[in-house]
Specification:
A hairpin with a 4-residue loop joins strand 11 and strand 12. The strands form 3 sheets. The protein has a 7-stranded antiparallel beta sheet. The chain has a single domain, classed as Pnp Oxidase, Chain A (Roll). It contains 3 helices and 12 strands. By secondary structure, it is mainly β. Helices cover about 10% and strands about 40% of the residues. It binds flavin mononucleotide. The site of flavin mononucleotide has 21 residues, from strand 3, strand 5, helix 1 and helix 2.
Amino acid sequence: MKSFGQKAWMLPQPVLIIGTYNGDGTANAMNAAWGGQWDAKEIMISMGKHATTENLARCNEFTVAFATKKTMVAADFVGIVSAKNDPEKMQKTGWTATKAEHVNAPVFSDFPMTMECRILRKIDESEEGYYIVAEIVNIVVDEAFIGEDGKPDVEKMQLITYDPVHHGYVELGKRVGNAFADGKELK
Ligand SMILES: Cc1cc2nc3c(=O)[nH]c(=O)nc-3n(C[C@H](O)[C@H](O)[C@H](O)COP(=O)(O)O)c2cc1C
């Protein structure tokens, strides 16, 4: 084993696209890798100091879409360019925004699956940002990605994960087993 010390190398990391409304009512999006499930109906995100942070100070609602191979370039773009510096930011992504049904935030129809969320708690709030704990109010899934069992077909989505070691995006692969089941072989 080779030792690497302290690194932000939790694996695999998601590529979350956080959708909010700017002060003028236009949509914004940013990329976040430091997030995950918090509780059964709650998620967490480590939020820095961005235009998105200002948007969340005005309205505690947002969306979380899961980036795909198809949306990868624009997903990276919204992670390196701030709406504070580029008023054309969202036009450049080519994404289509409509208002979410249950929260005051944009849903980008270019993504297979999107969570509608509302902030419940801000933890360790400082000048640098805070940790969001948010309620999952609803989840919307593009019909094209609904499987025969009526549920989202994750394998179809070509989701990407963030590789923090080499700063890459890696496409998720094939299903290799059944959770809460295959392990029974060793019981
Ligand atoms: C791969 C990647 C992961 C990122 N993860 C986070 C994150 O977890 N939390 C965060 O606050 N910013 C994260 N960022 C940075 C924001 O996405 C970036 O600062 C963005 O431009 C903010 O946009 P805004 O100012 O328009 O809101 C990440 C960026 C990239 C490219």
